[in-house]
Design brief:
heterotrimer; A: about 75% helix; B: two-stranded antiparallel ribbon
Chain lengths: ~270, ~300, ~400
């Protein structure tokens, strides 16, 4: 539909924006080799010493492990509760449904500092000690929303006639769910789960308020940043995380990047 | 119409599957049961916490020990409304949030359009992965990399000077914050725009062409209105995330870059004046409430 | 050492009594009588432990940036098996907030400065410590064994650590000779090149400068300002505002500002100076101008609900030794409280003992106006001085 010049212009714009997105990330990779521990341009020398320093640093390992644990916990809760919520909202019509939909959007729509502050006050009020569980609860609250949105969007795009057809053919509720509904929404669930994990893994504001003496990776990074003497270690860790997640991200992109209404394979 | 009415359990009620027949006879029971756990979570934890925060806004603290004194008063709100410093800070935050949202919409739309309608399937996947990947590179590290780019002897000035242009010197200014915020939230705008644009059926575009519309007319009258919910959805993220952020102003901002988030954080994390911070926090909540209502009218909630 | 034994600093003791009076007033809700009784801190009756048991394997510290450096932390971890987890705070307020609720059962110790100490003590967030468990305590300078900001009625609520001044940091390329006055921070010719901490206590620094620049204001104590003195100081800071490139929140903010040429002069801690000098890209130095400087006296305090008290005592023991005191003094740029540290400092870095005044601190000590929490009671006893809460709101309007 688009003309040749329009396509060229769009292509050029896309390349430009890709550069915009990735230049800071390339700098992060580059400065992981910095001889100096203060970041300044141009780089004054290259070294590999930070890789071994980071590898041997127990704080980094503890923080990384805690982040993964918190992410998995929050994502697990989110997958269950988010999918339940999506199913319920999709099927039910009741007075106050709009209000409930709005409620489910709030954790992402309200700034994180408000979520963090209110949860912190809530914990203090109920004399709950801060721990990894308070972190997980905080993360789960917005992770639920991410999964909920993804699954609900997919449910809205699936054709109800498939379910009806299955029922007509004699499947009971559970069979229908297992054989028809689940495959249709599975990619949305996986995509929602991965996005939820990504948000939890990189979350810093809510975590600042809901963590006690525990350090998730972003909290450790913030501590290292404010010292001003361990920047290259931060760059090493972040580079490592990026490299490790390239494959899962590509997989997720395959699952959903084509995932619009036109791609519901079973429906074709 | 709910699907439950078509299920047909063969067993008689009261037999081996009484629960299942109950679910059949009361069609809304299953979804309602599904709704209870998430709703309970949200109401008992999240909503309760928010309400508690709102209540705290009406209290004060003992200034020496910073323990909360549960005496109802409106002092906090009075201070916020009368002291011009807070109006300045709120205004600056809202304006910058709006600016970042518009910038991201403008940047993201052509990118998302290319992804959705021009790129081949394989390129689409690669581009989508490319947009998701930055979310895995720590927000803090990316913002810090921007300090490297924008400061006095940073990449930007170095590049400009090496081609003979004067240095930009936008480090530690609101302009720097605008650039950094637009950068950080860009994936959150691209993804909903892309999803919305992808859903525009080819048939509509063909129909428009059949009716005689030229390319730009089609884009303006068919594509844009259908993509608007996606843009609105993305704007919720960019606006709200900018509105509440305090870390980027600390790292990249200069004098006169304080955001609502900074003052809130200073009062909570440093001065331990939670009631005042809570009172101040009601401002972004109110702003977002208005924004969400507007966005919902544009169909954003379906495009999230 | 001479000046310290003979004359415990008068204003500190006054501040303690005044603070105690405030506590009485707050607690009883009535006007105070002439003879002020020193209210007992809430944890006064908690007897400290008499021995150090086995380490619990972990230690959670709240510290100033640079206080838990790997160069001495790693050895401690190896020796005791206590894995140290440090959270950095950039201001006393932040430390008080983190410690609220006795550390919340999360934190073991906090390296609090004088202005935080009393608030922590009277808030019940820290409990008494036993100096007998710290062998090097007897080597401390006498003043720092029982300074009024961490010792109340003979009970030690912490073990003194180090002390030092807030300095004037400058880029040697811009300032060929060291500036002699804080006026450079308020000088329009350095517009856009100045940086100062984003901390309301900075008002005291401005007041200190004003006390010499404008003697008619009669500012004697930069932390106890009458309305008129306070207004004049705030006016000065508002004049300074267009000159400031950035109000730094994190130590690394200031390090980046100087490293990359965005700032040429500013108020700093010696930590920033040392980091920049070690890196070597920009030539910087710091100085204490003629008007004197504000400063801090730090104490390691034990949280009331500390989960790892044995590791906490092991740490306190460790950082009080002459060697670690010397290491920290040189690394951060401050003065140790252990008299034996001077020799160690000389062996680590020649000239450092004199540079950081570890050998003759008496006169140096007098030039520093140590941080303390501003309260309503003025030096003359009247209640018309500006309390800290107003400092916070004033600072917000200055930096908005």
């Amino acid at each position: 539909m688009e003309g040749f010049w329009t396509r060229m212009a769009l292509r050029a714009w896309t390349v430009l924006i890709l550069l915009f997105l990735f230049i800071p990330i390339l700098l992060i990779f580059y400065y992981a080799f910095n001889t100096s521990n203060i970041e300044s341009w141009p780089i004054r020398g290259l070294t590999l010493k930070w890789f071994s320093a980071t590898w041997n640093d127990p704080e980094v390992r503890t923080a990384l492990v805690l982040s993964i644990q918190a992410g998995l916990g929050a994502t697990a809760i989110a997958l269950v509760l988010g999918s339940c919520a999506a199913f319920a909202i999709h099927r039910l019509t009741f007075f106050g449904r709009d209000a409930v939909s709005l409620l489910f959007v709030l954790p992402l729509a309200l700034p994180g500092i408000i979520t963090g502050m209110s949860l912190r006050s809530f914990y203090n009020f109920n004399s709950v000690d801060l721990s990894i569980w308070t972190i997980v609860i905080g993360h789960a609250t917005f992770c639920i929303v991410v999964v909920y949105n993804n699954v609900l969007a997919r449910l809205r795009r699936t054709q109800g006639s498939l379910i009806e057809a299955a029922m007509d053919l004699g499947a009971n509720g559970f069979q229908t769910f297992r054989d028809i509904t689940l495959p249709l929404i599975s990619t949305a669930v996986v995509a929602g789960g991965m996005l939820a994990f990504a948000l939890s893994f990189d979350e810093v504001i809510v975590t600042t308020f809901t963590a006690g003496a525990q350090n998730t990776l972003p909290l450790w990074i913030f501590g290292a940043i404010r010292l001003g003497q361990r920047l290259p270690e931060v760059n090493v860790v972040v580079s490592f995380v990026i490299l490790v997640t390239i494959i899962p991200v590509v997989i997720a992109a395959r699952l959903t990047g084509g995932g619009g209404a036109a791609r519901v394979q079973a429906a074709r | 119409m709910t699907v439950e009415t078509l299920g047909r359990p063969r067993r008689k009620s009261g037999g081996a599957f009484p629960f299942q027949s109950l679910l059949w006879r009361v069609p809304w029971l299953r979804p309602a049961l599904l709704l209870v756990p998430p709703l309970a979570w949200f109401v008992l934890i999240y909503l309760a916490a928010l309400v508690l925060l709102l209540i705290t806004a009406f209290w004060t603290i003992d200034t020496f020990t910073t323990k909360i004194i549960q005496v109802w008063n409106l002092d906090n709100f009075r201070i916020i409304l009368t002291d011009p410093a807070y109006r300045l800070i709120i205004g600056r935050t809202v304006i910058l949030a709006a600016l970042v949202t518009i910038t991201d919409a403008v940047i993201a739309f052509p990118f998302a359009y290319y992804m959705a309608r021009v790129a081949t399937r394989r390129v689409q996947t690669i581009l989508f992965a490319a947009v998701l990947l930055p979310l895995w590179a720590s927000y803090l590290a990316r913002v810090y990399a921007w300090i490297l780019i924008l400061n006095h002897s940073g990449v930007l000035n170095w590049s400009l000077q090496s081609i003979g242009l004067p240095p930009a010197n936008i480090g530690y200014t609101n302009v720097a914050m605008w650039v950094v915020f637009s950068y950080i939230w860009l994936p959150f705008m691209i993804i909903p725009c892309y999803a919305a644009l992808e859903r525009v059926p080819d048939s509509l575009l063909e129909a428009a062409a059949d009716l005689g519309a030229r390319r730009w007319r089609t884009v303006r009258d068919v594509v844009l209105p259908l993509a608007l919910p996606g843009v609105a959805a993305g704007s919720i993220f960019t606006f709200s995330l900018t509105l509440g952020d305090y870390i980027t102003p600390i790292l990249v901002g200069g004098a006169g870059s304080s955001f609502i988030g900074n003052v809130v954080y200073t009062n909570v994390g440093i001065a331990n004046n939670v009631p005042f911070a809570a009172a101040l926090a009601t401002i972004p909540v109110a702003i977002m409430a208005v924004y969400l209502l507007a966005a919902r009218r544009l169909g954003a909630f379906e495009a999230l | 050492m001479k000046g310290l034994d003979a004359k415990p600093v008068h204003w500190l003791r006054l501040a303690t009594t005044a603070a105690a009076a405030l506590m009485v007033v707050t607690a009883c809700g009535s006007t105070t009588t002439a003879g002020v009784t020193t209210q007992q801190p809430p944890t006064a009756n908690m007897k400290p432990q008499t021995t150090i048991g086995t380490g619990e394997g972990a230690l959670n510290l709240i510290a100033w940036e640079g206080y838990v450096d790997p160069s001495w932390k790693d050895q401690f971890q190896k020796d005791t098996g206590c894995t140290v987890n440090a959270k950095y705070a950039g201001s006393s307020d932040e430390m008080v907030t983190l410690m609220a609720g006795g550390g919340g059962g999360q934190w073991d110790m906090v390296s609090a400065s004088g202005d935080a100490d009393l608030r922590l003590i009277y808030g019940g967030d820290v409990k008494p410590m036993n100096p007998d468990l710290v062998p090097d305590f007897k080597n401390f300078q006498t003043y720092f064994q029982t300074p009024p900001y961490n010792t109340i009625n003979g009970t030690h609520y912490g073990i003194s650590l180090q002390w030092g001044p807030n300095t004037l940091l400058y880029n040697k390329a811009k300032f060929t000779t060291a500036p002699t006055s804080w006026s450079v921070l308020y000088d329009p010719q350095y517009k856009g090149l100045v940086t100062v901490p984003n901390n309301p206590i900075q008002i005291a620094d401005a007041a200190l400068y004003l006390s010499k620049k404008d003697p008619s204001l009669k500012i004697t104590d930069p932390y106890e300002l009458t309305q008129k003195q306070f207004d004049a100081t705030v006016a000065l800071l508002k004049q300074q505002r267009p000159l400031v490139k950035k109000y730094w929140d994190l130590a690394s903010d200031e390090i980046s500002l100087f490293e990359n040429g965005d700032a040429m002069v500013g108020a700093a801690w010696p930590y920033q100076t040392n980091t920049l000098q070690a890196d070597g890209k920009v030539q910087v130095a710091d100085t204490i101008p003629s008007e004197g400087a504000t400063g801090w006296g730090d104490t390691w305090m034990l949280a009331t609900k500390a989960p790892h008290p044995n590791c906490a005592y092991l740490w306190t023991k460790y950082v009080s030794t002459a060697h670690v005191q010397a290491q920290q003094a040189i690394s951060f740029g401050e003065t140790p409280v252990n008299t034996k540290a001077c020799a160690e400092m000389e062996s680590l870095q020649a000239g450092s003992c004199a540079q950081y005044h570890a050998d003759a601190p008496g006169s140096y000590f007098q030039t520093i106006k140590f941080w303390k929490t501003p309260i309503a009671t003025c030096p003359d006893g009247s209640q018309s001085c500006i309390p800290y809460a107003q400092w916070v709101t004033a600072w917000t309007s200055i930096t908005a």
